[in-house]
Amino acid sequence: xxxxxxxxxxxxxxxxxxxxxxxxxxxxxxxxxxxxxxxxxxxxxxxxxxxxxxxxxxxxxxxxxxxxxxxxxxxxxxxxxxxxxxxxxxxxxxxxxxxxxxxxxxxxxxxxxxxxxxxxxxxxxxxxxxxxxxxxxxxxxxxxxxxxxxxxxxxxxxxxxxxxxxxxxxxxxxxxxxxxxxxxxxxxxx
Length: 190
Hints:
Blueprint: H1 3-19, H2 28-38, H3 43-55, H4 60-103, H5 107-136, H6 139-145, H7 154-169, H8 174-188
Helix pairs in contact: 1-4, 3-4, 7-8
């Protein structure tokens, strides 16, 4: 096993776990940065990671870290990157739990937590836009042709709109939509 690569995996995912406040989607901007810096995976791989992570049990960020670690260094890499991602949370939770008992009613603590909300919203929105760009647009085709009509991947865009409306109008479990999208991908070659 390449020790330096293992240390780098841990370090990159430790940073991600430390600053990706807001859950799995908030890790996406960090994954794009890791991709650009290391070349361990492509932006297309990120779209695949999201699809796999959303359709498998467990937290999305952890699933993505495990995926990257496994594709980089096999099983040891999966363990290392996953530990790197969750270590900051464990450390922070232990520290915060002790402090929160003491400062639970503190106005400063409340303001800090309210300040986290817009930051995590922005991270999740940026991640969502990145996924939409990969999934719904044909950037390469558009850049070559200059034809605006070729910018959009219309079958995927229609599927996304249908699922969005169905989510808003029904109370079906998200797994139904994931399964439906998988079937549509197979049947229609999306």
